[in-house]
Amino acid sequence: MEKTLPTQPAELVKPPATDIGILGWLKANLFNGWFNSLLTVIVIYLIYLAAPSFIQWAFLDSSWAANSEQCKMAGAGACWSVITANIRFILFGFYPHDLQWRPLLAVVILVLLLVYSRNRSHWRKSLFYGWLVGLFVMGLLLKGGLFGLEPVESNNWGGLPLTLLLSVFGLTAAYPVGILLALGRQSKMAVIKSFCVVYIELIRGVPLISLLFMSSVVFPLFLPEGMVINKILRAQVAIILFTAAYIAEVVRGGLQGLDRGQYEAAEALGLNYFQTMRLIILPQALKIVIPPSVSILISAFKDTSLVVIIALYDLLKTTQTTLTDPKWMGYSAEAYIFVAMIYFVCCFFMSNYSRKLERELDTSR
Amino acid sequence: MNAQVPDKIPFFRDPSKLSVFYQIMTLLGVVLLSYYLVSNTLANLERQSISTGFDFLGKEAAFEIGESLIDYSAADSYGRALIVGFLNTLIVSFIGITLTVLLGTVIGIARLSSNWLVAKLSAIYIEVFQDIPVLLQLFFWYAFFYEILPTPRQALAPLPGVFLCNRGLIFGVPHFHLAYIYAAIAFGAGIICVIFITRWSHKRQDESGKIFPLIRVSAVILVGAPLLAWLLGGAPAEMNVPALKGFNFKGGVTISPEFTALLLGLVLYTAAFVAEVVRAGIQSVSKGQREAAMSIGLKPAHVLNLVILPQALRVIVPPLTSQMLNLTKNSSLAVAIGYPDFVSVAGTTINQTGQAIEGVALIMIVYLIFSLSTSAYMNWYNKRIALVER
């Protein structure tokens, strides 16, 4: 005798209402267990304490286009007018007022180049030359003196263009130096190796500010009498020397990440050292280190703010200068939040990009 | 018949000779460059009639320092002023590192929490505080103290006995009593005790497999010994509570706005990086490890202590030390908000004496000592915990 299965379908049992939909999500993500429930309640209470008063201050009670007297009259709310009234000084510093389209254009070119370079299918030799031309044009726009552009003293450069200049030129110039240092550190020649090791460890061991001090007070002593190098260039050199040591360590990671077989195969082909490096090793090693290089760009971008301490007018210094104006004293929170947002947006896009690259370049999965 | 084999390779084809040649050239280049720089420098110094050497350290400093752990007045020497700065750097780094590790660990774990709200908030915290330059954060907290916080008369009191105003952070401390010194000595003895117990228990565990309740026993010793000493010393409980007198607080301990702003900025910034390090470390331990540990019947606490943590720490400790070093190096930004750390005092010294080279060299040497000792410790630690490959 065989049992037959019942022909009518079994009754469909739906999951309990508390396990699906919004309720289910809340239960799974916010109230799973007494500890998480307690945490959720505490966090929501803290948000409840902080958020309304912040919104009140930043938006509801704030003034956006008032002058300083009106701001002082208005009282409690945020005075964003400190930004709107001084935006040109904060962004461009002491650059001549009617020539400020030039640094603006330079920044726009830089942003366009960066956006275009995001896509890896655009990475060709022509893009590399495009960057060289772009950097040259940016420098020309800032400096002037050619093609009928009025020359502008570099002492008057300031604000966002200076910040970008120091970090982008810094990284561009530091990269070749860093590669040489990394190769030197891997070299079998004892003298060269020891120089590179000492340099890298020395620079990585001291804070950037000591190098900036050096560039501003010690470096002039190194030069022969009568020779003067301007302050921005000296700070730029300090940033390059500093960044190069960090790049060297990153590139070394890439060099060590390569299989020994690559070196041996190149040797077996009869390539000499320079051919091996240029044709076999570096193209592969540099590809590995692209994501950490973006992280170095991010820290270089943040670190340029340190030039405030040797009194260069970068974005942070122009903001501070605005705040020392008696008319706008006391609105530091607003001004610093604005500058923080500029830094945040730039770094956020860069770090997102670095993560995206890491996923794309990771062919192991 | 025989192909003419050159019995000598020309020197420009011989790698070993070339290598010697390159090295000599490099050495020569470096020596020439340093000779050029040194001779320029000496000529410049002579023209500006600045004497070289460290004699200036013994001269009278003639500037005041706002905060000092040791006795200092403007009549003291530059050398003593620099020691004051050095101690200030040490104290801010030490407290900063302790708080950073605590906060960073909490946020790193919160980042992995199954609670959606907590995980998202930690992610936002990490992203925001990593992406804003630490100097800007320092300026912000400094302005927060001087512009946003009220005067002592309207001081905020977040906890009873703790006041927050534009003169800094003020809180009560116990009156001095011998019992506290006894307690401190007992605490030190407790630490030594715990170290020995740890060694003994590890050894016993390796030999017999028996597990000693190390954390609980250590906690009892570390809390109990000072407490006992305090009780035996007479259990003094009198507090030195700050009270408003005139325009400022009297009594208690005042921590200056500069110090608090520096500490806040450094801790909040570095904790974001530490949180990422902790998260990466925990995630690096594969799921199978936890499952395997549970399947051989370990208790949850033992799963964490004996299986997960040892593996996670191996990943966490190296980047964690480099973050601690970063915090120490970033503490040099104190100079921007007027906290008298080593760089700030050295900067003043350079301005007053013109001894730029010696001043900058001192700054570099001090930070090099910090980083070299850290990396020496790191190498020792890495060797100790490295996987023994069989």
From TrEMBL, chain A:
Transmembrane parts of this sequence: 34-60, 72-94, 100-116, 128-149, 161-183, 195-223, 235-255, 288-313, 333-351
Signal peptide bounds: none
Superkingdom of the organism of origin: Bacteria
Family according to the record: Belongs to the binding-protein-dependent transport system permease family. HisMQ subfamily.
Sample GO molecular function, one term: transmembrane transporter activity
Subcellular location: Cell inner membrane; Cell membrane
GO biological process: amino acid transport
Chief location of this protein within or outside the cell: membrane
Gene Ontology cellular-component terms listed: ATP-binding cassette (ABC) transporter complex
PANTHER family membership: INNER MEMBRANE AMINO-ACID ABC TRANSPORTER PERMEASE PROTEIN YHDY (PTHR30614:SF41), MEMBRANE COMPONENT OF AMINO ACID ABC TRANSPORTER (PTHR30614)
Membrane topology: Multi-pass membrane protein
Entry keyword annotation includes Transmembrane helix: yes
InterPro entries: AA_ABC_transptr_permease_3TM (IPR010065), ArtM/GltK/GlnP/TcyL/YhdX-like (IPR043429), MetI-like (IPR000515), MetI-like_sf (IPR035906)
Organism: Desulforhopalus singaporensis
CDD domains in UniProt: TM_PBP2
NCBIfam families: HEQRo_perm_3TM (TIGR01726)
Entry keywords, A to Z: Cell membrane, Membrane, Transmembrane, Transmembrane helix, Transport
Gene3D superfamilies referenced in this protein's UniProt entry, alphabetically: MetI-like (1.10.3720.10)
Protein name: General L-amino acid transport system permease protein
ABC transmembrane type-1 domain: residues covered: 160-350
Family matches, as SUPFAM superfamilies: MetI-like (SSF161098)
From TrEMBL, chain B:
Membrane topology per record: Multi-pass membrane protein
PROSITE patterns: ABC_TM1
InterPro entries named among the record's database cross-references: AA_ABC_transptr_permease_3TM, ArtM/GltK/GlnP/TcyL/YhdX-like, MetI-like, MetI-like_sf
Residues annotated as domain ABC transmembrane type-1: 86-378
Localization annotation: Cell inner membrane; Cell membrane
Taxonomy, superkingdom: Bacteria
Keywords, ordered alphabetically: Amino-acid transport, Cell membrane, Membrane, Transmembrane, Transmembrane helix, Transport
Residues that span the membrane, as ranges: 20-38, 82-110, 179-199, 211-232, 259-282, 360-380
Cellular component per GO, a single term: ATP-binding cassette (ABC) transporter complex
Molecular function via GO: transmembrane transporter activity
One GO term (biological process): amino acid transport
Entry's family note: Belongs to the binding-protein-dependent transport system permease family. HisMQ subfamily.
Name used for this protein in its record: Amino acid ABC transporter membrane protein 1, PAAT family (TC 3.A.1.3.-)
Organism per entry: Desulforhopalus singaporensis
Taxonomic lineage of the native organism: Bacteria, Pseudomonadati, Thermodesulfobacteriota, Desulfobulbia, Desulfobulbales
